[in-house]
Amino acid sequence: QLVESGGGLVQPGGSLRLSCTASFRMFSTYTMAWWRQAPGKQRDQREFVAAISTDLSTKHANPVKGRFTVSRDNAKNTMYLQMNDLRPEDTAVYYCFADNQVSEIWGQGTQVTVSS
Fold first, then answer.
1. Ranges 8-12, 33-37, 56-60, 99-103: which has the least confidence
2. What is the mean predicted confidence (pLDDT) over 24-44?
């Protein structure tokens, strides 16, 4: 019900834009977020990256502030993560997450690798 895309291999300092498209109804009523799971980490060690609420307010984790920007287009049922100035420590599987306080939905993840 959530499909991420846009991941890939990029050199340090490069940029990527991730997309997360939802197939369920009432997308605009969900708070959306990005999480990431670094290599060797377990599912319960996923790290919060950024979130955007139903009123379009945003929150970004300290390690990505000033470099990553979360946004959403409710008409397209899609959330985005613009990632600039990527660093090797940003290497991870990036997951999309949706929450409306009734249900929680995870995407399948997209791999981002930052390496020269």
1. 99-103
2. 96
Question: What average pLDDT does range 72-100 have in this prediction?
Answer: 98
For residue 80, name the pLDDT band (cuts at 50, 70, 90). Answer: very high
Handedness of CA 99, 20, 36, 83 (dihedral sign): negative
Four-point Cα dihedral 32, 38, 40, 41, nearest 10: -40
Give the residue from 67, 70, 109 showing the smallest Cα distance to 92: 109
CA distances in angstroms from 46 to 25, 51, 72, 79, listed in the order given: 26, 14, 22, 19
User: Could you tell me which residues come within 8 angstroms of residue 107 by beta carbon, excluding any fewer than 6 positions away?
Assistant: 2, 3, 4, 20, 95, 96, 97
Quick one: DSSP state of residue 57? Answer: -
Beta strands 8-10 and 68-73, pairing class:
unpaired
